[in-house]
From TrEMBL:
PANTHER family: RNA-GUIDED DNA ENDONUCLEASE RV2885C-RELATED, TRANSPOSASE. GO terms for biological process: DNA recombination; transposition. It comes from the Bacteria. Keywords: DNA recombination, DNA-binding, Transposition. Residues 132-199 form the Cas12f1-like TNB domain. InterPro entries: Cas12f1-like_TNB, RNA-guided_DNA_endo/Transpos, Transposase. NCBIfam families: guided_TnpB, IS200/IS605 family accessory protein TnpB-like domain. The lineage of its organism: Bacteria, Bacillati, Bacillota, Bacilli, Bacillales. Pfam families: Cas12f1-like_TNB (PF07282), OrfB_IS605 (PF01385). The keyword Oxidoreductase does not apply. This is Mobile element protein.
Length: 214
């Protein structure tokens, strides 16, 4: 676990109610972000459109003869769209990180192993991975400016399989099960929101531990 201490321009905010002050975030592919408050933020449509367009441009490029004029032309088109997507992404990530920092004093995020992930060859996946690491950076300095906490929870923390109600582990839970009921306490869970709640809980536990020893 790491508590980000980037640019501590402002002294850290005093927290009276940890439960209310914090939000946990689960990052995904279908949804960009799911919060412990039950909010699901989708990747914006214009981005998906651009990604489809990019895939088709790359296919066209792959058919051109290397070194030819048409190859150079197609390559330029791909680069131009890449830049557009990067900018659209950044706008989106700034907006979401700003909203989270405005609404919370503590933000808990899964610490994703981005280095390992960007090697993934699938385009959509690749773009998501890059976004996540940029998102973390944006959150990190926005929190730093305002004396808020960004807490990174180890990504091997079993956030999806643990019941957010009673803590029982559902070892049988498969990836395709989006909604499940805890066999121990009976509580029904949306898989992603439950994961976000567990991330929040773990982050708050770690923060309180840290504050107690500081
Ligand atoms: Zn339970």
């Amino acid at each position: 676990m790491k508590i980000e201490q980037v640019l501590p321009i402002q002294p850290k905010i005093e927290i009276s109610n940890f439960e209310e002050a914090a939000t946990g975030c689960d990052l995904g592919i279908t949804h960009f972000l799911i919060t412990s408050d039950g909010e699901k933020i989708e990747n914006p449509r214009y981005l998906n459109r651009s990604l489809k367009h990019l895939a088709s441009l790359q296919k066209q490029l792959s058919k051109k003869k290397k070194g030819s004029k048409n190859f150079a032309k197609a390559k330029r088109k791909v680069a131009k769209l890449h830049l557009k997507i990067t900018n659209q992404r950044k706008d989106f990530l700034h907006k979401i990180s700003r909203q989270l920092v405005n609404e919370n004093q503590v933000i808990v995020l899964e610490d994703l192993n981005v280095k390992g992930m960007v090697k993934n060859k699938k385009l959509a996946r690749h773009i998501s991975d890059v976004s996540w690491s940029t998102f973390k950076t944006f959150l990190s300095y926005k929190c730093g400016w305002e004396g808020k906490y960004l807490i990174l929870v180890d990504r091997f923390f079993p956030s999806s399989k643990q019941c957010g109600g009673c803590g029982e582990k559902n070892v049988m839970l498969t990836l395709s099960e989006r909604i499940w009921a805890c066999s121990s306490c009976g509580q029904e869970h949306d898989r992603d929101i439950n994961a976000a709640k567990n991330i929040k809980k773990e982050g708050l536990r770690l923060l309180q531990e840290e504050l107690a020893t500081a």
